[in-house]
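User: what does the whole thing look like in 3D?
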Amino acid sequence: MDTIVCVKHVPETAEAEIAVDSSGKGIKTEDLVFDINEWDDYAIEEAVLMKEKLGGSVTVITMGPEDADKTLRKCLAKGADKAIRLTDKAFERSDAYATAKILHKAIKDLPFNLILTGTQASDDGYAQVGVILAELLGIPHATMVKKIESKEEFVRVNRELEGGLEQVMEVKLPAMLAVQTGINEPRYVSIMGIRKAREKELKVLGLGDLGLKEEEVGESGSWITMEEMFIPPVEKEAEILTGGPDEIAAKIVETLKARGLV
Amino acid sequence: MTNEEFAAIKKLNFNMCMQCGECTGSCPISPKSQLNPRRHMLETAYLVSPLTMRPPLKIYERNEIWDCTTCSTCSYLCPREVKPLDIIIGLRGLLVEQGRIPSTLGDALEGVYKYGNPWGLSRSKRSDWAQDLKVKYVSEGEKADLLYFVGCAASYDSRAQEVARAIVKNFNALDIDFSILGNKETCCGNEIYSLGEKGLFEELVQKNLDLLDRYGVQKIVTTSPHCFHAFKNRYGRELPVKHYTQYFANLIDEGKLKLSGKIEKAVTYQDPCFLGKHNDIYDEPRKIIESIPSVRFVELSRSRKRSVCCEGGGGRMWHDIPGERLAEGRIREALDVGAEIIVVACPFCLLTFDDAIKTTGNEEKIQVKDIMELVAEAL
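Assistant: Here's the predicted 3D structure for the full assembly of 641 residues, as structure tokens:
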């Protein structure tokens, strides 16, 4: 099984204090820690698990700045064989469609049976790139995949639906699967492992290498334009509890009881 | 197994092991876990000896390797000075390189790599505990004669932060000039080393040494015996580090610290493994406790070298195992000797005992306090 995994280097925002930058269309990232997008971590793990079981190769690919090499090296340390970074000033501000076009150019001539992506990226949450990429490549796709069983000509996948439902379907290969978190347990990669992965191939390609024109990518090649990004104001109903942990816990219990929730 | 891994294991001094079983017999974890240092020694020997016909040890099937608290009882009791603890850390290292590590421990390592603390909390919140206190932060061009190294637990855990606050209060009460690194402080790496993540540990050593050099640090005092141990024994460079118990005991000797406030309670003391068994520091904490007027000091039945681990070391703060916690047994021992306060000198002991007092339902009978909290009360 030859697999290509599309990954994204994203800022971790769960614990951080977020501020919108001066453009009003992004966030200040200077003090943020970047790492592989959580969903993509499951995707690369799934690809490596399949390689360990069935043989074949894993190629990891990202579109992003030079700093995204950290995520690529991590994937190489996890077991990917080679990495490709797509970097060009012209790629900036690409929407999901433009991003998929760029990935498509890089992937279309590579040999593969399967493309894996995360279901969505934690920064923009579009959940579109994988699906558009599959359309551009003319291959079938499945999203929110939480189990993959590999057969000769197809994969049997379980899709996670709402309400605890799961859907099982067969998808003809080659195919694109967007992986859901929880499909596996991503392995830890040691610092030594990441250092050793420096010996593996990491190719950097730009606009010209991919045979793309400036107007096909970035803002001009996008169908969606970002208007504004903002932090919603705190609603009146929001109440911030203060005090020590015991005090806060008691107040929470009180509130839940008062509203008949427990 | 790669040649490098083979070489790494070969370096460990297991050939002296005579399989007496003292290590397993004394291991406080082995009664509730598959952890068996003697067997791990034997299997590791099989792993590297070309003469044995046994199949190679499948260490990845040995999940119990992660149950070890690195208390070092096995190592100091070993009659052949083999140090089974080093073998366990070595085996952990092999597993880490294969990515085979319980997910919560992997998260702790990632947290240290990305945020400088094993809880993965934001670096910008590291010194929030000190906001309303009189502290000096290190600054470029100014030498930090005395650095107070707070450590991750005392920086982020709300209970352990009280110890950091008590230390600052005590320094200030005694007019001692000190600085802290603030949000620049990063994990000392002691638990990282214990978890076998050598690459990450090396990075932390480099980061911390750079910080100490940049701010011209002359002396270091730590909250945690774990940080103290790392700086003293694992940094490959002689560092002027003291645990706070040593620093404050010395102030008593010099007549600079006189405690006058009365604490009319029966007090016992838990020897932290990384102060006691690892570094032979037993008298200094007792000197401080006993210098508090009217304290009735009682020893636990198993104390000093025979003290029992609280189960917070070796990464176990982030990896729980089934069975009664050692700290729960220790609380019962403390009640048996009539103690009303169990005093600790380590943030991990503080947190494990804080939990154990609650889980054993003894909140009315006994409290856990850090020595620095007692001193702050008695000053």
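In plain terms: DSSP finds six helices and eleven strands in chain A. The interface with chain B takes residues 12, 15-17, 31, 33, 35, 78, 185, 187-195, 244-245 of chain A (CB under 8 Å).
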